[in-house]
Design brief:
By secondary structure, the protein is α/β, with parallel strands linked by helices. 42% of the residues lie in helices and 10% in strands. The chain contains 15 helices and ten strands. The chain has helices at residues 8-23, 46-50, 71-85, 136-139, 147-154, 160-166, 178-188, 193-203, 218-224, 230-241, 249-258, 261-274, 279-294, 315-322, 350-356, and strands spanning 29-33, 38-40, 56-59, 62-65, 90-95, 98-100, 112-115, 120-122, 158-159, 171-172. It has a four-stranded parallel beta sheet with strand order 1-5-7-10, sandwiched between helices. It has a four-stranded mixed beta sheet with strand order 2-6-8-9. The protein has a two-stranded antiparallel sheet with strand order 3-4. A hairpin with a 2-residue loop joins strand 3 (56-59) and strand 4. The longest helix has 16 residues, at 8-23.
Length: 357
């Protein structure tokens, strides 16, 4: 189903299919799998870079991209994320390869997420001037200790065994058994969670992270990444790097210092806020953050590092990017179960604003 990278057409089609299947009594089980060597490497960043040169329009206090090149797919993706998290039928992800960024939103929230030894998970958005999006300020803020902050700020990669141990996947199945597992799931002709679980458990193996896994370094991570600012985190991390046995920190620090100062600062704040926010609140916040960053509300960091240092990232500018959209422009999350598929992009205010332009 998914591939590398996720494009606007797939986002639109997937939302249509999920709605259709949820309402269809004959549809019992939904399986996500990759179409190639990757499960899904997230969104296609090319559309964001190509959309930068479009004319901007100031309307209702928010600058909109006039040709809608970014806004439509961003809106549809966040709206889709909500429905994946809250889907009414049993879903299984079969992950054999790369799963990054928005691709993770089609894996982690599912009742059953099966990974193999080929699975690679990461959320690298902060390093390129964006933020951990597609509900990950909600997901990462609920991981043990400060592991979520570590993964978001460093873009560290986890393998399949680590994903299961961290709670980002439910089962580990060796790759040579994955095709047979899929056949068995399809032959069930049932979406009963207990039956699906029993089948997956027939193929799954108990796993432990390798000795060198970052999950075995959580005491150091918790000590450093509890800091109130990125500068404080880096300073604490530098101090720990001098301790014998912490040689692994040097490479992580090097990556942190190469990353976007704005992206790091916004990501840390978003995850900290996410600890106290609901799923809907996180998605609405992330939608606003993404659009503000893509339209260069406070800097051009998605396109070039500006400002170039953490010291130059001001609280005032960060507050600007976190400023919520008006009720009219906010992401529409259904308030009632009876209308849970309402709030689509085409029924929002945005298409009419595009027409007026």
């Amino acid at each position: 189903m998914a591939q590398d990278p996720l494009n606007p057409e797939e986002v639109y089609l997937l939302a249509q299919l999920l709605e259709k299947w949820e309402k269809d009594d004959d549809a019992k089980l939904v399986i996500f799998k990759g179409a190639g060597r990757a499960f899904c490497a997230g969104g296609d960043l090319r559309m964001f870079y190509e959309g930068r040169s479009v004319e901007e329009l100031l309307m209702s206090g928010v600058i909109l991209l006039a040709d809608d090149s970014c806004l439509e797919v961003v809106y549809r993706m966040y709206w889709l994320c909500y429905h994946i998290h809250t889907y009414k039928k049993t879903m299984v992800a079969l992950v054999h390869g790369i799963v990054m960024g928005g691709g993770g939103a089609m894996v982690v929230p599912l009742k059953f997420s099966v990974v193999t030894e080929k699975a690679v998970f990461a959320v690298p958005e902060a390093s390129i001037g964006l933020h951990t999006d597609c509900s990950f300020s909600y997901i990462l803020s609920r991981l043990p200790g400060y592991l979520g902050e570590y993964l978001a700020l460093t873009g560290a990669r986890l393998n399949g065994k680590e994903m299961v141990a961290a709670g980002l996947a439910t089962h580990f199945v060796p790759s040579e058994k994955l095709q047979e597992l899929e056949k068995r799931l399809l032959s069930l002709d049932s979406g009963d969670e207990d039956k699906v679980r029993l089948v997956i458990e027939e193929f799954s193996a108990a796993v432990q992270p390798d000795e060198e896994s970052v999950l075995n370094k959580l005491s150091t991570i918790n000590k450093c990444f509890c800091g109130d600012s990125v500068e404080e985190i880096i300073k604490s991390f530098e101090s720990e790097a001098s301790i014998e046995g912490n040689e692994w920190i040097a490479a992580v620090l090097k990556g942190l210092k190469r990353s976007s100062p704005t992206g790091l600062t916004i990501t840390l704040r978003s995850i900290r806020e996410g600890r106290k926010q609901t799923l809907a609140e996180c998605l609405k916040k992330e939608f606003g953050l993404t659009m503000n960053l893509l339209r260069s509300a406070i800097s051009g960091d998605v396109y070039e590092w500006n400002p170039s240092t953490l010291e130059e990232v001001t609280n005032e500018n960060v507050d600007l990017v976190f400023q919520p959209f008006s009720a009219e422009l906010a992401l529409k999350i259904p308030a009632e179960e009876s209308c849970r598929w309402d709030g689509k992009y085409e029924n929002s205010v945005y298409p009419s604003l595009k027409e007026k332009n």
